[in-house]
């Protein structure tokens, strides 16, 4: 399959990477009203929103910085030789406009945007936004059937509530998603969990519901290949979601985030784990918690978009396997 | 009057300024449950909260950075010779704990904290927080009678609502305060207003209610002394509130803020305007919108605490004038 | 005159300023091939190019950072009440693609782009780029008749050559422009010149050709209004160009530039001088030498776009005066 | 054993981590005069002092930045499940006030402070300060009997003197400590030593006295578990001290320090080595050489406090093993 | 007088400013042993030393950063047309090597270095270092006769002692210099003094000895010309010293310093005050307290070297007036 | 062999590392005209030039920052015990002065400078500059006979041209070098290649000419020792060049570069690979693409000079093996 050149990114051989408006990976901007919207296979979407953040804010600025950094991405995957933009019609769909002063209103806007994508057969690759973003996205993507999930993170995000009853924060999205039937907990695996803990309430919920947690100590001891083989087994051949919190990566490699935890994977492992998703049926993916105010050098965003490129290739690989 | 040495700050001649826990101005920490709470005349309070921010977040980190910078403040005002900490019992009352995931809950917590202060006869000097902070503070301080206000800012913060109906943002606090009868609009003056504008809805509200706006062009043309004489006339001899948004100052002098506007006063004028408040009956004051993530050098916080020291001296001067 | 809403920017009341792709001032992107290109009155163009830089590079990154900062600009001028986007059809025309490895090739590309604009009746407001940018722009804009020029800068940029004969650097553009008949030296005024000097070769050229230099010491002594009145007299009522090097402003207010000179105007004066251009026939304007690698806080870019907004209003004011 | 809730830290579920005064790990502040001082088991102390620094200064600012970062620490160790604050009475004892203009006076002040702790049965966990800090601490802690030591560092700090005879610098503390009988050199192991060298004078001293040096090349070749097993053997079951210079860690993971050396352990290994201290009789520990002026992002301090949390757990584990 | 080309700086027209080793102002390096040492008229010396600093350290790194920034200085003064390097033989004499672990030893080394200069008839222009630097310099320069002094600063540096008796800190040099007969207090003027104060002990010493203090409020009210006329009167026609603490300037213009005070002169005034020294008999001058760790952008150093260039021209102007 | 003490660096025990002019590794400055030039064995040269850069500029500032960081290097290699400065006569030869406005002129200047070195028997160790630097260096070093090369990089730099025909950029030097017969492609190995790709044009050229590419995935899988054994085999016992692009290293360890690629070697591996060059006949080496504007902390430069120290030791080791 070769896509229409309309969907091919601008080359750095023709236009320097610092020139031109920074869409995701230099792809065309195809916002919902655009006349080629329905042709898109995979839509890259920004969700500039961090109202779920309980500590240091900033991910609302993530999409813009990620787009800027993404102009460094080129046409071909260096290892597999996949040329994703010639294989699937990819486009930048723009940002969902949030309401920074109203959490519920913002979640509705997000779900509506992704619902429109779903009705047009567009699979989403999201640039967050804090981790609460995944919940309204899943409400659209998993509306009909519960999904499995590969979740890279240093936290489980399975807490019940914060501050005396607040149910919607970036520490609670997957608790809500399981409760709402959007995720099948037995097909969920959480990788990289670490750090000091409040208590074991989240772990107890995971255990009671069959969610598999792979702490970072186990990750380091077993290695990427072994851990990811188990992850693929857990998720199986049915559709799944991939949620990648940048704080999965060690904070030295990804300082631009709000709740870092020491001792995580390095940048090479950060890519390897995505390459090991090959063959899964990925209904959607996100990269969240990139926080530019804490990323003065831009290195976190650059790592983030490199991960997004790997996620994109994994989504297409899955498509090919299914096609 | 000489206060109990308990209320005197630590001297930099005895303990270097980088040593010890950074309370505001090296004052004793006297949280609400402390047994000397009722003895406090002026309480310095942190409100680490920015849920009203519609653009770049960060003021939730303000109180901590302001306390750190405040260890540079010494015992005596260089111009007037006032030794505030020996004149009034001043203390750091700690922070109000906000709920970052719930605006209304946070406003209730703030109002409750300041109500307790008021019942103990403590006048507040607040370190925000974004500008929405002023509203729940005024609900406590102005509970019984509407106050006048001297408001330093580059924005009026008099808008009706944002994003299709959100009533509580950092662009709306004084609209609400006038509506709720907390401020007497005819005794309100806003100084330093500037920048490009959405529309004139806020100006129309000001005009309709008798709020005096002094744009920065007028400020620069007339000079500090003339403008402040008018401000004192407007506010008069009845109790008033002073609200100081750090974005009143030119962003080169105060880059650490979320919504800067070019062309404001310099750092010397930033202090002068406060010195010109001498004689007013200041029931409370705040310094808001200091945003550490955008203040890499800490210069904004240092300017902020220097302004707070001037506000403190002005509050005591007012007290003296009244005493 | 009210423009088509297509040409109106997105409001921050509807979409937060950190959301959406950052075009200049949130205007529509109308690149040369766009079907509404010919409707544009004033085109905002980026020239991401710094091959003429003899010291610290970086202005090639200017247009992207300026667009990002420009999302803070709103619809109405705070002082004059002008609503420029409803008065003239303004659009972001995208970037001219330079060749960073070939100075002459890049200059041809730039002149060609601006020639196309000129043929469509679009007046340019350029975001550089280093100051050599002005030369290929003038080759298009002043193709038919020599222009006057108001030039804000700390350097004259009138040198003959560098490094043993290099004729095209950011220190030589206006020497070339005078030699090529693009500028009428008797209608050129350079304001803000300062700093230590190599020698007097540039001043001698100015004197010999009738170019008026107003050093910063004279600027500070006489004040903005008096200096600008003389500037308007020099330029007169015939068409002129406005070239604004950000290093005109004191480097504390504009650190993000390659060749700063201490002791320049402050940020308020930086805006005032543009407001004083009212009434001139401005055929085009540029803001150059913003260098993001030396502007960690983004303050220089924010000042830069505020100046661009003033330039835009001045260009429209001129149009109105002529209309 | 369950400690009095007075000694429990504030939870981030109740109060956001950016709120409140930043004591170490959100523990109560129990300075020497406090009436519960004698109840403390483990005291966290800051020594804001860097007069021993021969190159880039800054560790005097370490304790304040470390306290700030430490508000991210939670109640439970993620791997062992130990809840240290419920197991031992831990408190922030404040800072020792140094005299930045007098090295000998400062050392006396430090030894006196730690002597008082020792008389009250409080084991110290110190946040430096530069590495000279360890000497006056050891003068109190090892007053009666020489201790073994596990020393993590890239330098031996065993030099005789600097600059023609200066005996007290951050390159000499352990030479002095051995000379003064505070350390038993045969029970001392130094891990991670690397970098280019002046000469072999320090190595010769180590060899002559039986100090075991494990260079980083050996560390990388053998791995954490093997190296630490040897370290435990060397130190044995008698009381020991643990001194952790943050420059043990690779400077990419810990840039905020004055004398970095390339090629050290990563952040995961930085934690692992402390976990491997389990079972040692740790009479005291320190984390030194964190230098905020060279740690713009705060990542070094965050790594530092995570190491301090591991050290605290190791000290309690040792206590339990002994109890 | 035209100097030997050996003493002329490299031109930026020949070698870009970022190339070559950064000596002060691109002058030749003529260290004390050099065979042309005795030919030097004015020697630029670095004193990388900050052991007198009681708060934030860093000025030990000043000379290196100042040399780097000084490569931007050109051959001719923009206002007076003076070409200093062709008028007097100027050279970079290198750094005095301090002992960071011993204050008294360092002071002896400095005095010895400057004594050698004095014996060779070389007038010093010093780049500090903290303000204690001025004391050992004065011990050499004013060995035979007490000097007058123009002192630009926000602090008087006239305190008796710190921390219970430390006599040599950056807050005491001029107290010592008066006591030692190096300065004639009746010919000393201190300009720009401001900020909150510990007490009035320094002011009392000034008053008792006839030192004239001009607070910044008076400076702003009277203006540069008037204040400097008085300063010249105070100092008179006998030899004097000029000591310029960079914290004289407002911290927004000069953030890279350890003890900033809000509300100082701007960058233009920072230069003007030096230009007003014309005609004084300047026996030596220094620029101190530039602290690179707090000057991320390098702007403070750039301002500092521009001030040094003005000081150099003032020293030569004085020489000319005397010649 | 013991060299003349003239060629020994200054010790940090005598002069603090922040004092004195920063020559490379504190070696004597021996510029081409110096009377001991011909005695030099290995010359450290700066090439402050980045006109070949197609994306983010900055390496023109590399030599100055590298010299500054290099003052941390000491006299003896920590692992091998080699004391390079006593084994070979090493000196800082200063910078080649480039023409930033003319690529061809700059290349001629560089080749001329290195030709002079070659005629004096001096082997070069270069601090770039961008990677185009290697081409004019090779034109001098490999004038007579094609060299082998060990090339550490994340890019092949084997492209034909950019931007419609530009032949000299930092993406093309080794394509040119092979075409010009300066390199023997069958003795060239490129290690660490990674990242997304434009196309396979460079790989095709490598394959057609026998250049061996070792992608980073293979590097990580096989390990340093195995990969470097192959590299030594490829290069063999004939003279070779070593070119080290700092972007070989993972961008977290080396952020200060213009075209980073995620997933590279860590800092320890960055040194190990050079140590494994032992025994090769190294005719010259370079370390390029260090870009200070993107290296706020200076960590990249510090890693860079540590690599240069390893390269220097490898060059001397090779010399010894050959001697």
From TrEMBL, chains A, B, C, D, E, F:
Name this protein carries in UniProt: Guanidinopropionase
UniProt keyword Calcium present: no
Record flagged with keyword Oxidoreductase: no
GO biological process: putrescine biosynthetic process from arginine, via agmatine
Binding site for Mn(2+): 131, 153, 155, 157, 245, 247
Organism: Salipiger profundus
Cofactor: Mn(2+)
Pfam family, one: Arginase
